[in-house]
Amino acid sequence: MKSIKYAVKKVHDFKKPLAYIDTLMKNSKLWIHSFTKISDIWVFQQLHMLNYCRMLLNK
């Protein structure tokens, strides 16, 4: 998954930003199952930031 800063910057380049965020979140959840070496805290932070971006876009 690309860095959150990149994702936030790029999210408005897409015609369907929520779909883009959903894709990133889905990929993150797949990572959780595939790579247990990735810190759970890091993954949680990524998902939290993506949820926050979704909230801002939904306003």
Key words describing this protein structure:
single chain; 59 residues; mainly alpha; 75% helix; 0% strand; 24375_t:CDS:1
Summarize the structure.
The protein has 59 residues and is mainly alpha-helical. 75% of the residues lie in helices and 0% in strands.
Q: Can you walk me through this structure?
A:
This is 24375_t:CDS:1. This protein has 59 residues and is mainly alpha-helical. It has one domain (4-58). 75% of the residues lie in helices and 0% in strands. The protein contains 3 helices and no strands. It is flat. The termini are far apart. The model has no long low-confidence stretch (mean pLDDT 64).
Q: Domain count, please report it.
A: 1
Q: Describe the largest sheet.
A: none
Q: In DSSP terms, counting alpha (H) and pi (I) runs of 4 or more, how many helices?
A: 3
**Proportion of residues in β-strands:** under 5%
String of helices and strands? HHH
Low-confidence stretches: none
The value of Rg in angstroms is 11 Å
- DSSP summary, beta strand count: 0
Distance between the amino and carboxyl termini = 25 Å
Mean pLDDT: 64
Q: What would you call the structural class?
A: mainly alpha
Helix content: over 70%
Name the overall outline: flat
Secondary structure: elements and pairs:
Elements: H1 4-10, H2 17-34, H3 40-58
Helix pairs in contact: 2-3
